[in-house]
Amino acid sequence: MRGSSHRPTIVLAGGGHANLFSLRRAAELARRGFDVVLVDPSEHLHYSGMATGVVSGAHAPSENRIGIRRLVERGGGRFVGGRVAEVLYRERALVLEDGRVVPYDAVSFCLGSEACGGGDAVPVKPVANLEGVRNRLLSPGSGAARVLLVGGGAAGCEVAVNVARLMRDSGSGGEITVVEAGPDLLPTSPQRARRIMLERLRAGGVGVILGQKASLRPGAAVLEDGTRLEADLILAATGVAPPQVFARSGLATGDDGSLWVNRHLQNPNDERIFGGGDAVAYRGTRLPRFGVFAVHQGPVLYRNLQAVLRDEPLAPYEPQRRYLYILDLGDATGLAIYGPLTLRGRLPLRLKHKIDKSFVREYG
Ligand SMILES: Cc1cc2nc3c(=O)[nH]c(=O)nc-3n(C[C@H](O)[C@H](O)[C@H](O)COP(=O)(O)OP(=O)(O)OC[C@H]3O[C@@H](n4cnc5c(N)ncnc54)[C@H](O)[C@@H]3O)c2cc1C
């Protein structure tokens, strides 16, 4: 699948948040003498910041989709629909699940992560799944669904309050319960944020069970104390894991199989391999798995993909020490968390919508 020209090929493997910056500049890369190829099983990236708003109905499903195929093709690049299964880094080629081979001169991996499922649970990541959750809960046969959400971190809690709002607004009479293994919700957030979230869940009619690890079975979860909770729909938000393609290919990885990258976001096995987002271990360790990190890595990847092919100095990446994240509480308010600071109200949600909408518009 290599082009006939002698132009170096930059492959963007996965059109995730960290590769968007380069994708949007595909035309500029072409003008500078590079062929650009995007490999992704999907033609759209579902922007995670708006995904829970899609569940509640605050955003239309189309509003959080970024047309990554359109982005690369608009810039004169090529879209290859498929999933990377192996990296032949000595030959500088990617093998796709269906056996096709995509050669590269330089590659940036941005494959994201997936929530760990189990039984017949629906993982909340990839966030594209959440569109299906909304459709399922609104389908005529779903009735008063019993929903169980396992995992009380930021993603799990945000999904829970928005599912509760959907069920309330649709008048379905369904119920939702969150089960968290730890003693508290939002384990990495300030105490005040945890309290606000707990209050919000309870006010929204969401059942909360803390300190119980749930084992997932088809149609049910069994708690450590033996309680069996039957459910019509189980959502898994119990943490995310990177794809295992890097470890399988013999590339250096962090301990969970994410791609090991140095301060230039470059893998030590081959100077032409870069990566960003949830699927990398920055200098061997995990950064928080938030899209804001992936987005900040975008310009560094864009620059370094070109620099390595031109024998120019590489740019360093410096992770932000503090970052803002705003959870949509599903009641027209947001919960903003920045380091030790926490603010709840309408203003944080307005700010979130403004940031999210302008981000998606930038890639529209
Ligand atoms: C419910 C929820 C809400 C969230 N809200 C926020 C938020 O408000 N703010 C925030 O900062 N973070 C948020 N996050 C976290 C955020 O989703 C991730 O940190 C972010 O998506 C990581 O981006 P990424 O670029 O690594 O991968 P992704 O954006 O997940 O993209 C991965 C891409 O790789 C493709 N792909 C996967 N496997 C392969 C393969 N083998 N071959 C080729 N392509 C492949 C996928 O199709 C996809 O296009 C949220 C997460 C969840 C679950």
What is this structure's SSE topology?
Elements: E1 9-13, H1 20-24, H2 26-31, E2 35-40, E3 44-46, H3 51-56, E4 65-67, H4 68-74, E5 78-81, E6 84-88, E7 93-96, E8 101-103, E9 106-109, E10 114-115, E11 122-123, H5 129-138, E12 146-150, H6 154-170, E13 175-180, H7 191-203, E14 207-210, E15 214-217, E16 220-223, E17 228-230, E18 233-236, E19 240-241, H8 245-248, E20 259-261, E21 273-275, E22 280-282, H9 291-310, E23 324-328, E24 334-338, E25 341-345, H10 346-362
Parallel strand pairs: 1-2, 1-9, 2-5, 9-21, 11-18, 12-13, 12-18, 13-14, 20-22
Antiparallel strand pairs: 3-4, 6-7, 7-8, 10-19, 15-16, 16-17, 23-24, 24-25
Domain FAD/NAD(P)-binding: 10-298
Protein name: FAD/NAD(P)-binding domain-containing protein
Organism: uncultured Rubrobacteraceae bacterium
Keywords, please?
single chain, 364 residues, alpha/beta, FAD/NAD(P)-binding domain, five-stranded parallel beta sheet, 25 strands, globular, binds flavin-adenine dinucleotide, NAD(P)H dehydrogenase (quinone) activity, FAD/NAD-binding_dom
- The helix/strand class is alpha/beta
Spatial gap, N to C terminus? 28 Å
Detail the poorly predicted runs.
none
CATH architecture descriptor name of the largest domain: 3-Layer(bba) Sandwich
